[in-house]
Design brief:
- It is a single chain.
- Helix content is 38%, strand content 11%.
- The chain has nine helices and six strands.
- The longest helix has 16 residues.
């Protein structure tokens, strides 16, 4: 696995890349990509970082695993490539944005425009075997992405962390809540959303209000 990651991140994360767990992780991922069909494409594994430099992070959204269907994953949590059918969680995200901000439901589910504005769309696990959800969990990715969350918490301030669902909420322990904003709600998956744990959270307008409070430019959540 060639760690082609934005230089701004490499500076801060080199110590992680040098650790033995990351070397084992690299060997595992290389073997998997050589012998199995895996997602996202190798060149997109670190897309979340390459579209959102360390200095540009304003908002952090934490997901769990990349999508494992053909052509879906592009290295950003909840995001799919252009022309791909929107997965259920993404549909509910767009419905909430429409209700919250009046932004029309978009054609594309590609969230790169958010990343380019400073939204770090971070999955806890950055790779997956095709059609096998969770197949690359507990191989070292979670240790790495926890280190990323700790890093931005320690070195930056006034970030907005959006924690959706039980898995993401557990990451709150890594965040210094005295200098960052944390918004929590249910997961956008139909199971959670249909029980009333997602819709009406207004996280998108709330995020922009918080950014304005600290003199940061807001996120344009519109994709097209």
């Amino acid at each position: 696995m060639n760690v082609s990651i934005h230089p701004s991140w490499k500076t801060h994360l080199q110590t992680e890349f040098d650790k033995s767990y990351f070397k084992s992780l690299t060997d595992f991922v290389k073997t998997e990509y050589k012998n199995q069909k895996c997602f996202p494409k190798g060149s997109e594994i670190f897309n979340a970082f390459n579209h959102c430099s360390f200095e540009d992070v304003k908002v952090v959204i934490i997901g769990q695993d990349p999508y494992h269907g053909n052509g879906q994953a592009n290295g950003l949590c909840f995001s799919v490539n252009d022309g791909i059918l929107h997965p259920p969680s993404l549909i509910n995200i767009f419905k909430e944005i429409e209700a919250d901000l009046g932004i029309p439901y978009p054609k594309s589910g590609n969230l790169i425009p958010w990343a380019d504005q400073g939204v770090l769309l971070l999955n806890a696990t950055l790779t997956v075997r095709a059609h096998q959800a969770g197949s690359h969990q507990n191989k070292g990715w979670e240790q790495f992405t926890d280190a990323v969350i700790k890093l931005v918490s320690e070195k930056r301030q006034n970030l907005v962390f959006l924690l959706w669902g039980g898995f993401a909420k557990k990451k709150k322990r890594l965040i210094d809540t005295s200098k960052h904003f944390v918004l929590e709600t249910g997961h956008p998956s139909p199971l959670s959303a249909n029980r009333g744990y997602w819709f009406g959270n207004k996280h998108f307008s709330k995020t922009n209000s918080l950014l304005q409070q600290v003199d940061q430019s807001v996120i344009d959540w519109q994709l097209e």
